[in-house]
Fold:
Amino acid sequence: MIKQQLTEKLEEIIGKYAKEKGIENFVFSVEEPPKNIAADFAVNAAMLIAKKIKANPRNIAAEIIDLILSGMGDIINKADIAGAGFINLHLKDEVLFDELKKIVSEKDKYGSKASNNKEKIMVEFVSANPTGPLHIGHGRGAAIGDSLARILKHLGYNTTKEYYLNDVGNQMLVLAESARVRYLQLMGDEVPFPADHYQGDYIKDIAKRLVDEGRNIDEIDFKKEAVKDILATIEIDLKDFAVEFDNWFSEGAIALDQDKNGKTEVDKACEYLVSKGDAYVKDDALWLASTKFGDDKDRVLKRSDGRYTYLASDVAYHKNKFERGFTKLVNLWGADHHGYVARINACVQMLGFPKEALKVVLYQLVSLVRNGQPVAMSTRTGEFITLKEVVDEVGKDACRFFFLLRAPDSQLEFDLELAKKQSSENPVFYVQYVNARCNSIFRESKSRTDITKNADFSLLNTKEERALIKQLTAFCDTLSLCEKTMSPHHFTSYLIELADIYHKFYEKCRVLSDDSALTSARLKLIEAVCVIIKNGLGLLGVSTPEKM
RNA sequence: GCGCCCAUAGCUCAAUUGGAUAGAGCGUUUGACUACGAAUCAAAAGGUUAGAGGUUCAACUCCUCUUGGGCGCGCCA
Structure:
């Protein structure tokens, strides 16, 4: 919150200055300087202005500093010129102390805004086909999508998490047939199992249930039964991974369900596109003119045999999302779907929305390694590692934290042997340990009677304490960064850094001491630490045990 | 063949979207528990950011090319 307030004031002051120099709509950045620089924030405005008007950046910086000191004396203690013309700002301690008070009083509400209601956001993720259990790759999408949604929610956006269920199409027929053959086999029929059908044992489990229930083959809807069991498993696996959806949206609802005129939403979406001139008939098929909006080639919506493609459903689905009032759509897709981005972007624009209304976050696939050997992943062959398997082995917290450690863009190598180690090799323990240590102090402090109610933060004047407070107040900046980049991974970095600073503080500054005023102030400080750790880990879906 | 993503310390990855001396964890070496938890801390070693050009006051970041890896390119989903 500090940075945001600071930036607003600087924009006012420097913007006015730039305007006097003949520069309209001047944009500059407010950043944290590198660690070796002793300052709170750095501004690059002078170098940018100097370039535009061909002046000496340090002279410009000097002029801006005068303006800052006279206009922002209440929050800025000191400002100086460094390097090529950076303006380094030093905050007044009171600004940090006020923010600290806010953290302690607002607790889990800290950093959340109430004013973002204008945007209604849907985060759609996982959306794995109900043809088998979730594997580890889905887990990455689940962790990123869920945490992103939590962050957006915390920022005050009206946010909905949705799972799109592809329960229509060819794969469903294959699934039903897979279950039927397994059923026959269990009944003693020696029918061969087709090689291109779903091989996993979970299909046998479904068949076994049907046999155990004494069901007659003539009255079994194998598709329905298989999807039911698989979905139940998926839901449990996700729940154990701290992921819960607000809504499960069935493709059947738009591709099969008909209105009173006998039309599905897919029918209507295609008609709409035709009426707008964005879809046309060629070679007996219906084509989407996606090249109009930058796609490589036009795509088929309806095959010449009259069946719709997956894309047709997807157009209708996205239309449906907008019709439900969402103004911003976030889709998490595995990188193997990247070829699909251009056409869905085209759809959004054809539906009359700006390109920015949809953000597709692509996450690179997880490659599994076990004993140095790559592990193949394919739902068809049955040689896959399930999310459940990994969560059972390494724990939900470690697994989520691990997935959120990396930017979605980078390929992630998941070493099963490494992940199994419940040791300090896993950074999640390092962060959770902060909370455990704080709580240990709280337990100890209960026996003391000399603790004053009003902590005097000005007693927190060591460099370790100031660094800690500074890091705590960066919580909101981290939230904004995650929103800006649509990635929660900055939060893991932030928390690891916070943990690092805390442990250093812990070594240097004893909390419980004979100095009761100082003890009170430090207790309040670590209370704030707990708030931030708990909030931060909570946004990542990781728990904060008081004892470990 | 065309397109998208990636290449950073021995390993796994960050780097506030163009900022200052590129940072963490693990691993390696050395040291610290008779006061709040040593799942910790202090210190050391480790880099031509794959390579070559270019743009810029400033490049890991942007542009071009090369090399190497992942993934796509269907009237499949």
Summary: Residues 278 and 524 of chain A are 61 Å apart (CA to CA). Confidence is low (pLDDT under 50) at residues 378-382 of chain A.
